[in-house]
Amino acid sequence: MFTGIIQNIGTITGVEKKGKFARIVIGHSGKFADMNIGDSIAVDGACLTVVEFSQSMIKTDVSEETLRLTTLGTMKTGEKVNLEKSLTPSTPMGGHFVTGHIDGVGNIARKAIEGAFAIIDFNIPNELQSQIVKKGSVAVDGISLTAAEVFESGFRVAIIPHTLKITTLSVKKVGDKVNIETDIIAKYVQRFLSVQRKSDVNEVFLKEHGFIKG
């Protein structure tokens, strides 16, 4: 489990293909020297397991499914990635609950710089659209963001200067692909409602289950 608050930007220094799997080597500035083998780390939002580490390097193995369903499958040496260690009981909860399980890959449709801020529009897969709500949380490349507007094919976020400075959004450009993880609460609500017959979902049902106040 993660918070979506990025702790460091890493650099891909090696990608070794192992059949359908891969081992990725990530250089960092030293903030992760206290890790242990077997620890979880979010790399651009994807939860991976540390198999080797040093004062300035982390190695992780990436499964076939993760390579296929995330941007890690096309990562090349020299590319920048967002890094976050897994949540602990003493970690400040500054973002939102992020599982590290990517739901789909989107892309940047528009990026406008307004002073020290940025406005970015993302296109996302259709099946994720119902899990995005205005003012709701969403993780983009592991970054906890708030949807300022929701469109038919995606959403818009306003990026503050601090977030631009400490994440890869500062170097991302229109057309670049990003990992998307929708809010886990939205998934549970959608699942809960999907198993109910349409005739059962009415005002009385919603009041009984706490969705609206009566």
How large a portion of the residues is in β-strands, by DSSP E?
A: 35-45%
Q: Which spans have pLDDT < 50 for at least 5 consecutive residues?
A: none
Biggest sheet, open or closed, and with what strands and sense? 7 strands, antiparallel
How many structural units, i.e. domains? 2
Count of DSSP strands: 13
For the record, the CATH class of the largest domain is Mainly Beta
Global geometry: globular
CATH topology-level fold name of the largest domain: Elongation Factor Tu (Ef-tu), domain 3
Count of helical stretches: 4
Give the name of the CATH architecture of the largest domain: Beta Barrel
What does this structure look like?
The protein has 214 residues and is mainly β. It has two domains: 8-85, Elongation Factor Tu (Ef-tu), domain 3, CATH 2.40.30.20; 104-190, Elongation Factor Tu (Ef-tu), domain 3. The chain is 14% helix and 38% strand. It has helices at 64-69, 161-166, 184-194, 203-208; strands spanning 8-18, 21-27, 40-43, 46-53, 57-62, 80-85, 104-114, 117-123, 137-140, 143-146, 149-150, 154-159, 177-182. The strands form two sheets. The protein has a seven-stranded antiparallel beta sheet. A six-stranded antiparallel barrel has the order 1-2-5-4-3-6. It is globular, with a radius of gyration of 18 Å. The model has no long low-confidence stretch (mean pLDDT 91).
Descriptive terms for the model:
about 210 residues; mainly beta; Elongation Factor Tu (Ef-tu), domain 3; 2 domains; seven-stranded antiparallel sheet; six-stranded antiparallel barrel; about 15% helix; about 40% strand; globular
